[in-house]
Amino acid sequence: MIKVFITKQSNYPVKTPIIKKKLSDFFTKNGIVSDAEVSVAIVGEKKMLDLAWKYLKDKKLHNVLSFVPSESKGGFVYPPDNKIHLGEIIVCYPQAVREAQEENVLIDERVYELIEHGALHLLGVHHE
After folding, report:
1. Which string of b and e fits 65-82 if b means at least 16 CB within 10 Å?
2. Residue 127: its pLDDT value, please?
3. Model confidence band, residue 40 (pLDDT cutoffs 50, 70, 90)
4. Measured between alpha carbons, how far is residue 116 from residues 20, 85, 89, 101, 110 in Å?
5. What's the rounded Cα separation, in Å, for the pair 85 and 91?
6. Which of 37, 60, 108, 118 has its C-alpha lying 20 to 30 A from 16's C-alpha?
7. What's the fold here for domain 2-122?
8. Domain ranges in the chain?
9. What pLDDT score does 119 carry?
């Protein structure tokens, strides 16, 4: 079973049950069949800028960041609970809203696209 934990820095109107279901299905479709968990955070611009600086030494506002456990907590440690800890996905909600407006898509649709993009990074799929 894949557990998806979602936290929101503010009262951003995202449909968490739908995101949890879609993301769980996404990981299952991509071969994750063991017990696993992933965390998703929906944050504002300041928090995203802070994270970009802390982990990337970058002052750019990113729309999504993702970190496997070894990137955010140090070296790999075998999980004592026998669950695969896939990592963390962080979405900048205000940036997602702007992009949704520019692309003329629903905000929820853009937020999920960003979450899925971050999930691909957790699975090792990267871009240039």
Report:
1. bbbbbeeeeeeeeeeeee
2. 66
3. very high
4. 11, 16, 9, 19, 10
5. 19
6. 60
7. Collagenase (Catalytic Domain) (3.40.390)
8. 2-122
9. 95
Closest of 48, 29, 52, 56 to residue 116, by C-alpha: 29
CB atoms within 10 A of CB 51: 20
Instruction: Express each pLDDT in 42-76 by its tens digit.
Output: 999 999 999 999 989 999 999 999 998 865 555 44
Token readout for 86 is: 């896939």
∠ CA 89-73-50, nearest 5°, is: 55
Q: At 103, list the tokens.
A: 């692309």
The residue written with tokens 């699975």 in the block is 123
Query: Is it the case that residue 100 has pLDDT exceeding 70?
Result: yes
Nearest to 23 by CA among 125, 121, 115, 122: 115
